[in-house]
Amino acid sequence: MQQSLFFVPITGLAIATVNPDETANAAGMSNFLRTLAGAFATSLVQTRWANATRENQTELAGAMHQGQSTLDGMIAGGASPESARVMLTNIVEGQSVMLATLNTFAAIVMCFAVAAALIWLAPKPKGPIDTNAGH
Hints:
Layout: H1 10-16, H2 23-63, H3 67-76, H4 81-118
Helix pairs in contact: 1-2, 2-4, 3-4
Protein name: Major facilitator superfamily (MFS) profile domain-containing protein
Keywords: Membrane, Transmembrane, Transmembrane helix
Transmembrane segments: 97-121
């Protein structure tokens, strides 16, 4: 029975494309590069997210032409000037984090789409793929 290549793990594809005497080296290199790529990706995503949050907060604060009237409305509603300022700051910070999260996840989705398309360029396995020893 022919096994479908659609559900074969990437490690199985990597190991199936090398000679049998290179299997241990290929597995070690695959695991090392996967771990290293995960560490780099985590760092890059965190940095991009923090920078996007800061940029969005600056843009939102600069675009608030009615900021003073909003503060005046909060003060007229019974809030102290300091608490009104803190509430408005918290709203702007929350919205900037939300925008940064949406932008970051959009970039991650594009990266996953490119990675999913790249799998079709992987070399065809030389022999049968044994997924039993994938761990």
